[in-house]
Amino acid sequence: MTTVSSAEHTRRDFLYIATGAVGAVGAAAVLVPLVSQMNPDASTIAAGAPVDINLAPIAEGQIVKVFWRSKPIFIFHRSPKEIEEAKKVDVASLRDPATDAERTKPGHEKWLVVIGICTHLGCIPLPHQGEFDGWFCPCHGSQYDTAGRIRKGPAPQNLHLPPYAFLSDTRIRIG
Known about the structure:
Elements: H1 11-36, H2 42-48, E1 51-54, E2 63-68, E3 71-77, H3 80-88, H4 100-103, E4 111-115, E5 126-129, E6 134-136, E7 143-144, E8 150-152, E9 164-168, E10 171-174
Antiparallel strand pairs: 1-10, 2-3, 3-4, 5-6, 6-7, 7-8, 9-10
């Protein structure tokens, strides 16, 4: 009878170690995709994430459309003339009363940021159209002024304002 001392490694010891290593690699190969599939999808993260916008390239009088949470956002660089016209409007005559100052951020009156969805049936209005040179919804005739306030047509409310803040004079964060 032959005995093997415990200090010597046998073929059986090698098989135990090799089986354990293959099992560990297999477990990791199963667990990594299982855990990563629990994370939210990249499009879901992007849909709710804040969006930073550089305002520097937007010319005076220009309206730029960006998307936040799958909604069109209109960023309007208003001229001094357009700001004055918006301030002159008699707020009491409006269907959804709001002053121009309530629709912009203090110190940044030249920038109007609105959600570009008509409050009547959800159409996307056209910029620089209509009697008030703001937005015109061609679907049902709603007209908004240069402050995004409903002035004519079936829409019940002004264009909604997204949550946004100025990071600097030339950058905003929406969301």
